[in-house]
Design a protein that fits this description.
Length: 534
């Protein structure tokens, strides 16, 4: 019988303030009777959205960017591959918190080299963190809010970095450990201009880029002079660009790829067909669908219209239609996590109830009060690809029930991101995934005024005030109460509509060892300790 792995959700942010120096090599230690084997090329399915817009992990948000960049780069800290909630050293060997909570000092690993041959130093670490926290020019930095409390970045000497804080930041270590917070070589970037990381890669990671055929595949190969002797075990990794879902399933079924993420029913089908040759896992994921209204233009500048749209969304149906039953309704924080509202309270929020006939009647009344009579026309911008376009179709069908006629406008990923950033849309459907189940990370990336992915263009002072209050609270219980109050305020404001939350379903062949899906795949895309038994 096949192995079935169930991974429980954990709120990482509750533990983010805990320091320590866990053993970075624990995940590589084989179980009794196992001997890791060197060699072989791991084959993976690239994100269904296709090639990433750029290689720059400081500015990108799409999963494909981490898929290709994760094996190449490293952080100061990381989440352990086989212990997803454990923060451990990476390029920093240890860290110390100041007694007043207003600073951290990191000791860096000596002798680490970039693939260019240059030695990694504190200057590179400071440059990299500043590039995220205070991005140069017009560069977008979706995760800059995670470093908002950092007042000064200091290279004390070649192997010591100090971050001076303006206020306590219990989420800082977790933010530093997420997969996007990678280290760049300062001289390399500056020699080629700030845009250089968008088209080239130069990291300290266990693998270095080998080849990229856009629309087909991306390959990395083992770094022969990697700083940790004996690792990685793999000779390389090949990521295949396969946007068609039936072809993705066929590639997994035939063993053309070793690991892939699938829909729930496809996971069941593959498990039944392949038996004990594969493992099928279901993980509560930090992944959700959304419908964003452009509050900068009519009719969505009217709160009555926004409320009508919110009431039109059938979240119970969406779990079945869009997540194939492998999901649940929820607010802005991951359902089941320590920051989330209880399900019973979520069910009472506007638009989350089961009496959709009553919701539709109220929505039609609100549209009439707003002066739009019984109907109006709009557009739904979405990314090309089955997942995104299906979401748009379902949303258009639900909006039609309240009299809103929506024309779907699919765009290639890069164009869709540009349109979202410019606010060039009426409605926008999107699938989102985030690296940390932490309020600073989630609200700072999606919902705050000026947040990197605040596509709706609406700033709510009361929400931002609550964000700031919880962000500096070091008592975990008190902070949780604050976050629940923040959630109640923000979700009811309708600044972004959550259509449904997903569970993550992964399938991998059992010749793959030392692999475990994380709730956020962004934090486990390096594959340093993964090995193949045949």
């Amino acid at each position: 019988m096949r192995r079935l792995v169930l991974v429980s959700a954990t709120c990482l942010g509750l533990f983010a303030g805990c320091s320590g120096a866990g053993n970075a090599l624990d995940a590589a230690t084989p179980a009794p009777g196992e001997r890791p084997r060197s060699g072989g090329v791991l084959s993976l399915l690239l994100s269904a959205s296709g090639d990433p817009p750029t290689y720059d992990l400081h500015r990108e948000s799409v999963a494909a960017a981490i898929d290709v960049g994760g094996p190449v780069y490293e952080n100061l800290l990381r989440f352990e591959p086989l212990a997803p909630t454990t923060i451990s050293p990476d390029l920093a060997t240890r860290w110390e918190a100041a007694t007043d909570g207003l600073g951290y000092t990191f000791s860096l690993r000596p002798g680490v080299r970039f693939h260019s041959g240059s030695v990694f130093t504190a200057t590179d670490a400071v440059f990299s963190l500043q590039r995220v926290g205070s991005p140069p020019g017009a560069m977008a930095s979706p995760r800059k809010a995670g470093l908002e409390a950092v007042q000064a970045y200091q290279a004390i000497d070649a192997h010591t970095v100090r971050l001076q804080l303006s206020r306590p930041s219990p989420s800082l270590l977790a933010n530093l450990a997420q997969g996007w917070m990678v280290m760049y070589e300062r001289a390399w970037v500056e020699a080629g201009g700030n845009e250089r990381p968008t088209t080239e890669m130069n990291g300290t990671g266990p693998f270095r880029p080998k080849a990229h055929q856009r629309g087909a595949s991306f390959e990395v190969e083992r770094s022969a002079d990697y700083w940790l002797p004996g690792l990685p075990y793999l000779d390389g990794i090949k990521l295949l660009v396969v946007p068609d879902f039936s072809t993705r399933i066929a590639a997994l079924r035939t063993g053309q790829v070793h690991v892939g993420r699938v829909f729930a029913t496809d996971g069941d089908t593959l498990g039944q067909a392949l038996g004990d040759k594969v493992t099928v896992s279901r993980t509560p994921a930090q992944s959700f669908g959304s419908l964003t209204m452009n509050a900068r233009r009519a009719p969505f500048d009217d709160p009555r219209v926004r409320e009508a749209v919110n009431l039109a969304i059938d979240r119970q149906a969406n779990v079945q239609l869009l997540a194939q039953g492998a999901g649940e309704p929820g607010g802005f924080m991951t359902p089941g996590g320590a920051w989330a509202l209880p399900p019973a309270e979520v069910a009472k929020l506007p638009g989350y109830g089961t009496d959709k006939a009553a919701d539709i009647a109220v929505a039609r009344r609100l549209l009439n009060e707003a002066g739009y009579g019984s109907s109006f026309d709009t557009t739904i911008t979405t990314r090309t690809g089955q997942t995104f376009e299906t979401l748009a179709v379902v949303m258009a069908d639900q909006l039609k029930k309240v009299g809103i006629s929506a024309t779907i406008v699919p765009m290639e990923t890069t164009r869709a991101f540009d349109a979202a950033q410019r606010g060039d849309f009426g409605l926008l459907t999107w699938g989102h995934e985030f690296a940390l189940d932490d309020p600073d990370a989630v609200y700072g990336e999606f919902y705050g005024c000026g947040a990197g992915r605040n596509y709706f263009g609406l700033c709510l002072p009361e929400v931002d005030a609550l964000m700031q209050q919880q962000s500096r609270e070091t008592n975990p219980d008190q902070r949780r109460r604050m976050v629940l109050d923040l959630e109640r305020s923000a979700v009811k404001a309708g600044i972004k509509l959550i259509t449904h939350w997903n569970h993550r379903v992964d399938v991998w062949w059992n010749q793959v060892h030392n692999y475990r899906p994380h709730a956020a795949p962004f934090n486990n895309a390096r594959y340093r300790e993964v090995w193949l038994s045949q």
